[in-house]
Write a structure and sequence with these properties.
The chain is α/β, with parallel strands linked by helices and 414 residues long. Helix content is 34%, strand content 18%. The protein folds into two domains: 209 residues, Rossmann fold; 192 residues, Glycogen Phosphorylase B (Rossmann fold), CATH 3.40.50.2000.
């Protein structure tokens, strides 16, 4: 614990001694129907963690159709859930946008969330978060993935009175947990650990399938990027006139999840022989994607035709790999637009990152690379459609990755 965390923790404990929170549920058995009627799902850490709570949200809505169900999530990820709620976040567009469900053909599916509350980051705009939580009238918090030491005090000051923590996890403020014994349980898959919190309050798991419903606006912006970018027709990937995009996401915040540039460059070269290549990542990974494209043999593309906007020409102008452009979009699109682009890909190659989980949720065929131990793979792998979502533990070579990709793609055109 750093100095700032220690000071905040001491101050929060002092305020709670001066004004003790009332009616805290000290055991799961004390949680009643009123508590179950207003539930806040907490996932304030990484992107993949937020995606992994979607089966829990689905299960809560199926079991408690009249309940108020909110999601407390980092503000940069909130746009991914904007089409799946009734109340718009002030950080997002105010007009209501019809939902797009990538997993179902029927549109206009029932909203699963009542609202999304933006988590602005540790110790940032705390008063705003407390006001939003209090205005929602939330009684129960399911702490799937959260930050210490600030999240539990924010929820307490926002009026939450029942706290359940995911198994094998704890919190500095464990005295407020209704299930403190669960911290001694062995770890479980992230999705199943979240679903277990629902089971603690009498909600049976309805699904283990992660899912996202992006806004129509995100899909529209993705279409505009692809339309305005000078990508030629697919060379050999599919039928004539068919859009055929292949995605490569080489970066990761964690060093142990990173692979070398030469290996990714070899995959990029192979992709260029099968379709249009799009590289994704954060702004700090833009240079990495650029190096991969150039290592793969990338060169500047001819100037786009006059119909392409000057803004897109500057922002999205691709490089060529073997005559086929490779588009570096790392850090250049909002998260929901990046997700919509991933949803259009025929295959998406990535280490175990947040955008890989987005691809699982959108039904995009994936090859996911795990560079840690087998236990890490078991805790984070997709739990549905194994024939569509391939996993490789410590891949031996780029050719092993390419072989898995080939299994997901149609036969190469003659």
């Amino acid at each position: 614990m750093n100095v700032l965390d220690a000071l905040f923790t001491a101050g929060a404990r002092l305020s709670m001694r001066i004004r003790p929170p009332a009616k805290i549920r000290r055991a799961v058995s004390e949680i009643d129907e009123t508590d179950r009627g207003s539930i806040l799902v907490v996932a304030t850490t990484a992107l993949g963690d937020a995606v992994c709570v979607t089966p829990l949200i689905e299960s809560l809505r199926a079991a408690l159709p009249g309940a108020r169900i909110g999601l407390f999530v980092r503000e940069e990820f909130a746009p991914l859930f904007s089409a799946d709620r009734d109340v718009q976040s002030p950080k997002l567009q105010t007009q209501e946008i019809p939902g797009r469900d990538f997993l179902q053909s029927a549109k206009g599916a029932a909203r699963r969330l009542t609202e999304v509350i933006d988590y602005p980051g540790k110790f940032r705009r705390m008063g705003e978060a407390i006001r939003r939580i209090r205005a929602g009238g939330y009684r129960t918090a399911l702490l799937c993935n959260m930050n210490d030491p600030d999240v539990v005090p924010l929820l307490l000051w926002g009026g939450v009175r029942a706290f359940l923590r995911r198994r094998n996890r704890t919190t500095i403020f464990r005295e407020f947990l209704a299930n403190p014994g669960d911290e001694a349980l062995p770890p479980a898959h992230a999705v199943r650990g979240a679903l277990e919190l629902g089971e603690r309050i009498g909600v049976r798991a309805a699904t283990e399938r992660v899912s996202l419903r992006l806004s129509a606006e995100a899909g529209k912006q993705a279409d505009e990027i692809l339309k305005e970018t000078p990508l030629p027709a697919s060379p050999t990937g599919g039928r004539v006139g068919e859009e055929f995009y292949l995605g490569l996401h080489p970066g990761s915040f964690f060093k142990f999840k990173q692979w070398d540039v030469a290996s990714y460059a070899e995959i990029c070269r192979w992709m260029a022989g099968r379709g249009r290549v799009i590289l994704t990542g954060s702004a700090r990974e833009r240079g990495l994607c650029e190096r991969i494209i150039r290592e793969a043999g990338g060169q500047g593309c001819p100037a786009p035709n006059a119909s392409v906007s000057e803004n897109s020409r500057r922002k999205f102008s691709p490089l060529r790999v073997g005559g086929v452009p490779a588009l570096n979009l790392a850090g250049r699109t909002p998260i929901d637009v990046a997700a919509a682009l991933v949803g259009k890909m025929k295959v998406f190659v990535s280490p175990d990152t947040g955008l890989a989980h987005v691809a699982f949720a959108l039904g995009t065929p994936t090859v996911t690379l795990y560079f840690a131990e087998a236990r890490e793979l078991e805790m984070n792998r997709p739990l549905h459609d194994p024939e569509k979502h391939r996993t490789l533990l410590k891949p031996s070579s780029p050719s092993a990755v390419i072989a898995e990709c080939e299994k997901l793609l149609p036969a190469k055109s003659p």
